[in-house]
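Exercise 7. Given the encoded structure of a 118-residue chain, write a plausible sequence.
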């Protein structure tokens, strides 16, 4: 999480991996709760999550409430070895425009930030 040092607020992050293009509409169709939770995390209402007691390893705590956070969909494009950060404004716009797929170049256009990984 080297990139996290660049932010002075809490982050809500959904990670995805793609080779060439990411199926944005497929993600929304399959997991609408994730998009809703990202938007809720940015609000005063927030998003509450209980961490399962059945999870492997140690847990930092039992649950959390994330409010007024900075939400990101981070898509790692394997061929470019680059993570593209799409913030709330971009996610709203892409959803409104009913975007189907995001090629790397399109994602970079809509991005808040990018981070190259070696």
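Solution.
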């Amino acid at each position: 999480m080297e990139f996290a040092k660049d932010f002075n607020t809490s982050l809500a992050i959904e990670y995805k991996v793609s080779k060439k293009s990411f199926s944005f509409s497929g993600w929304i169709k399959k997991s609408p709760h994730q998009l809703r939770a990202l938007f809720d995390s940015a609000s005063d209402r927030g998003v509450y999550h209980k961490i399962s007691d059945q999870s492997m390893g140690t847990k930092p705590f039992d649950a959390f409430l994330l409010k007024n956070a900075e939400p990101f969909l981070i898509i790692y494009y394997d061929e470019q070895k680059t993570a593209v950060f799409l913030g709330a404004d971009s996610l709203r716009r892409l959803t409104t425009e009913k975007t189907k797929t995001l090629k790397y170049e399109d994602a970079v256009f809509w991005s808040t930030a990018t981070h190259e990984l070696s």
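Remark. The helical segments are 24-30, 32-41, 88-96, 104-110. Students should compare their own answers with the one above.
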